[in-house]
Design goal:
The protein is α+β, with helices and mostly antiparallel strands. The protein contains 17 helices and ten strands. A four-stranded antiparallel beta sheet has the order 1-2-7-4, with helices on both faces. Strands 3-10 form a two-stranded parallel sheet. A two-stranded antiparallel sheet has the order 5-6. A hairpin with a 2-residue loop joins strand 8 and strand 9. The longest helix is centred in the middle third of the chain and has 20 residues. The radius of gyration is 22 Å and the shape is elongated.
């Protein structure tokens, strides 16, 4: 839906300080943890995007290349847009503990799923609440043009949120703020109303390079530069092909995504836990072993991941990722002979019926067994 020219019943005819305060209060009542407003001008960020794409660092994410012009200019994405309402929503569940996450990463028999993906699909949660928010604004100021987004369109979300003042760019390229670290989702409402603008935040990373140093595959090639082709989150989620052999050992037991750069970040010591039940972990994904997840049939995978972001990668990629992790368990010196024998047995039994993608990774895993 294209937006019209700025609505006659716009914020310019209202008490802007009161409207801005009301927007913040309304966002909080809907479960959002932050709200800031910016315009549509992205400046040098558009040039940096073009350079990143030209270097091929987006890997198989062709959609980023196809819609690069729209990403660079929200007014092209939704004509008539003059402001972007940026919101954040914390996702860290109350039971999460970073020390426990590190311990699980050190146990090769366990399956590690990124914290953000253990609950409901954030796309659905945020989109519904953004729509509800937009309707509330309409009731407040009258009819206006808008569209809501959350990681669902060619939009430079992190850059818009940074410019709006929701946080600053960490050296891992994620957005950081003092209250939530980096453990939050972003959403946007593109509007044709000239709402008052918020100020940007200063960078507070200083000389810290922990996120760069901890990355298992050295995907953060320099401060603020990420090569997605090396990133475990990309490799296990976006990548539709075989996991490059040179990154398989470094994947360890990470089955879906990777949180290392967030777990190590000093700002995440202050990360607030969410109060929303939507993001509580489901089906024991925070405690599951590799063998347990491998035992799921395709129908069990579909059923247990219904309403989850994980379901989108499909059963084949899920098994591909698990096979790599199980190969790393077989190669580990800390996994018992009994567990290794069981892993070897289930992989061998699954090989004949596996599709070509999964079979390649099972064969790789079996070769490291001793």
């Amino acid at each position: 839906m294209s937006l019209s020219a700025p609505s006659p019943n716009s914020a310019s005819s209202l008490d802007q300080p009161k409207l801005r305060a009301w927007l913040g209060e309304q966002a909080e009542s809907l479960g959002f943890d932050g709200l800031r407003i910016t315009d549509t001008h992205l400046g040098l960020a558009s040039e940096r995007l073009q350079e990143w794409l030209a270097e091929g660092r987006h890997g198989h994410m062709e959609y980023m290349q196809r819609h690069a012009d729209l990403r660079s200019n929200p007014q092209l994405l939704v004509p008539g847009t003059v402001r972007v309402i940026c919101v954040s929503m914390n996702y860290l569940p109350p039971e999460s503990n970073f020390d426990t996450e590190w311990q699980r990463l050190e146990d090769p028999s366990q399956a590690v799923i990124s914290l953000y993906a253990r609950g409901r699909d954030y796309h659905k949660v945020l989109r519904n609440r953004l729509q509800e928010f937009a309707k509330a604004i309409e009731e407040k100021i009258g009819a206006f043009g808008y569209r809501v987004f959350t990681d669902s369109a060619p939009l430079m979300e992190v850059e818009l949120a940074r410019k709006a003042g929701l946080g600053w760019r960490g050296k891992h390229t994620l957005l950081l703020n003092r209250e939530s670290g980096s453990t939050f989702f972003l959403g946007e409402i593109l509007v044709d109303v000239p709402l008052p603008l918020d100020e940007e935040q200063e960078d507070h990373c200083g000389t810290c390079q922990s996120c760069i140093e901890v990355c298992p595959t050295k995907a953060i090639t320099a401060p603020y530069k990420l090569d997605a082709r090396r990133c475990i989150s990309y490799l296990t989620i976006e990548n539709p092909e075989a996991i490059p052999v040179e990154f398989r050992s470094a994947m360890g037991n990470r089955v879906y995504g990777c949180d290392d750069c967030q777990l190590i970040c000093p700002w995440n010591k202050f990360a607030k836990r969410t109060q929303l039940p939507d993001f509580a972990q489901r089906h024991g994904l925070g405690q599951a072993s590799l063998l347990h997840l491998w035992s799921w049939t395709e129908s069990e995978f579909e059923q247990r991941h219904e309403g989850s972001a994980i379901r989108r990668i499909g059963y084949s990629r899920w098994r591909r990722n698990l096979a790599v992790a199980m190969g790393n368990a077989l190669a580990s010196t800390t996994v018992s002979k009994t567990d290794k024998a069981q892993i070897h047995q289930v992989l061998s039994k699954s090989l004949p019926a596996a599709d070509s993608l999964v079979a390649e990774h099972i064969e790789w895993a079996l070769r490291v067994y001793n």
